[in-house]
Design brief:
Elements: H1 42-56, H2 69-78, H3 84-97, H4 101-105, H5 109-116, H6 122-140, H7 148-151, H8 159-170, H9 179-187, H10 196-206, H11 212-225, E1 251-253, E2 262-264
Antiparallel strand pairs: 1-2
Helix pairs in contact: 2-3, 2-8, 5-6, 9-11
Length: 281
């Protein structure tokens, strides 16, 4: 990425800007969205997950190469449905041609599309980058704002992208929720929701604020290396003795109305062959 030896920040959310959500704060914070019921044992597991993943992946870094919050913001937009490796091949050319936010804001749509074509969805991404840059120039004097409530008002920027920029670009605690975080949070029963904002709220309510960004990065890396989507490698997982889903095999979303968000995929059973007499009759 959204995936390599370092952590990715790919954004699998829609390119269009997400609506502004209420601020999420946790332990040590002052604001918290309406408290929701958590799965049994979630708080104890969450803190243990933080400790074990910190030991397993001590260096939590973002795989998107960048030199400024603006470059990280652009790279994160480009990483939607695209690997970080591909984005890192495109951004040097992009930033050489458009080195400032003003240059991006004034870029011709067709020219920008051609530069980023290989990242996929290039028309939507080019428009999102241009509109985001225009908003930054017109409303924030050319500086990417370091606050969630401002970032999510930029066209093309949703809450997940904003959390990446805050946590990695500005050092402001944020918990980006991508497909990996969503999957692991469900398997570890840290939440009963599949909604990104609710998952963020649940995890942030259990984990110290200073751990938010690194926990997200480590969950992403663990999801790529061990707790993969189709066949999780439970025997080599450092969380297997505390994970309610360990050794269950492939998991899938529970239909609406399910209680825990994920369930075990039914396992095939061997068909019993009828016995045959030695004569073959």
């Amino acid at each position: 990425m959204a995936p390599a030896g370092s952590i990715a920040c790919d954004d699998h959310s829609r390119i269009a800007a997400a609506p502004l959500h209420a601020p999420v704060q946790g332990r040590g914070g002052t604001e918290l969205m309406a408290r929701r019921r958590l799965p049994p044992g979630a708080r104890t597991r969450a803190l243990e997950v933080v400790e074990r993943l910190r030991a397993e992946y001590p260096a939590a870094t973002c795989a998107l190469v960048h030199e400024s919050p603006l470059q990280l913001l652009v790279a994160t937009i480009l990483s939607a449905q695209c690997t970080d490796e591909r984005v890192n091949l495109v951004t040097p050319v992009l930033f050489a041609r458009y080195p400032t936010v003003e240059a991006l804001a004034g870029a011709a749509q067709e020219d920008l599309e051609e530069v980023i074509r290989s990242t996929g969805f290039f028309r939507m991404k080019a428009l999102a980058i241009r509109q985001m840059a225009q908003d930054v120039v017109e409303r924030y004097g050319g500086d990417v704002p370091p606050r969630m409530e401002d970032l999510v008002t930029l066209r093309g920027v949703g809450r997940k992208t904003a959390n990446v920029v805050l946590g990695v670009g500005f050092g402001v605690p944020g918990l980006p929720v991508d497909t990996h975080v969503t999957r692991l949070a469900g398997r570890l029963r840290l939440t009963g929701s599949r909604d990104a904002v609710e998952i963020e709220t649940d995890i942030c309510s259990m984990v110290p604020r200073e751990e938010w960004t690194n926990l997200s990065l480590r969950l992403i890396l663990h999801g790529r290396r061990v707790c993969v989507a189709r066949s999780p490698r439970c025997p080599r997982c450092v969380l297997n003795d505390i994970c309610p889903s360990a050794e269950l095999g492939p998991l899938r979303a529970r239909p609406k109305g399910g209680s825990d968000g994920v369930r075990r995929r039914p396992q095939a059973t061997a068909r019993k062959r009828p016995t045959r007499s030695p004569s073959g009759s």
